[in-house]
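About this split. The held-out portion is used to measure sequence recovery: a designer receives only the structure tokens and must propose an amino acid at every position. Recovery is the fraction of positions where the proposal matches the reference. Here is one held-out target exactly as it appears in the evaluation file.
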């Protein structure tokens, strides 16, 4: 299962705290990439945030990945389940053929 995670640092987080947390968070993301759990990571230009596409086996695994992030308490996230274009098209075609 793939999920898009958009994560942004909470406004007002002290720079001194971020200076400690960001290196730990970058190391964490690197480890996720090495394990194949984070497919891609992109920094959001002009913002204190990033996006990651995670590939997990379960919702519990996703919860652990999100909860173990060093920035967990100092950021907010939007999480979206993803489906491939092919699966989406297949579902759409099925709906069209079953429509009255």
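Reference sequence for scoring:
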């Amino acid at each position: 299962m793939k999920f898009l995670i958009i994560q942004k640092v909470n406004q007002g987080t002290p720079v001194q705290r971020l200076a400690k947390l960001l290196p730990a968070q970058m190391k964490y993301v690197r480890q996720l990439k090495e394990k194949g759990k984070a497919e891609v990571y992109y920094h959001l230009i002009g913002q204190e945030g990033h996006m990651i596409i995670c590939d997990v086996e379960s919702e519990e695994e996703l919860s652990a990945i999100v909860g173990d992030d060093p920035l967990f308490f100092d950021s907010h996230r939007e999480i979206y389940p993803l489906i491939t274009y092919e699966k989406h098209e297949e579902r759409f075609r099925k709906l069209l053929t079953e429509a009255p």
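Annotator remark: The mean pLDDT is 94.
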